[in-house]
Amino acid sequence: MKWVKLDQPLSESEISELEDQLGVKLPQDFVKWYKQYEGPESDFVAVDVNGEEHDVEDFLDPETIVEETRVFFDEREEYKDLGVVVPFAMDSISSEYCFFYPKGSKEPSGVFFRSRDVHLSDIFEGKDIKPSLYISRTFQGFLDKLYIDEDWA
Question: Organism's domain of life (predicted)?
Fold first, then answer.
């Protein structure tokens, strides 16, 4: 996979400010990638989510990550007690690729997919995200699963 480099790489202070606003420490593999790149070179990037192909249209800028994190639980406040969800990318219909930080955890439990039309009650199982929604336990694992869909190209 080839990546589009940022015109101006993000600085350590910009990453620190983002983490302060989110209230979490971002995974180092994400930070390393995110400081340099804005997304894939191809417009036809996909990932398998539980046997279904989904596109990866856009990696979010820091301001959008903060905003999407703030509104994630708007529809159901009771889920806020389970932890922090940090959306970092979207597909073409605004479904989200996210990190989930269980309450009290300094590390995310992985990268999961939330379809825009799925209610929060269908995402959580107990105090965690349903296992079938996880794509990878790490950001690098998520990147490794991305591929260029030749049928779309």
Answer: Bacteria
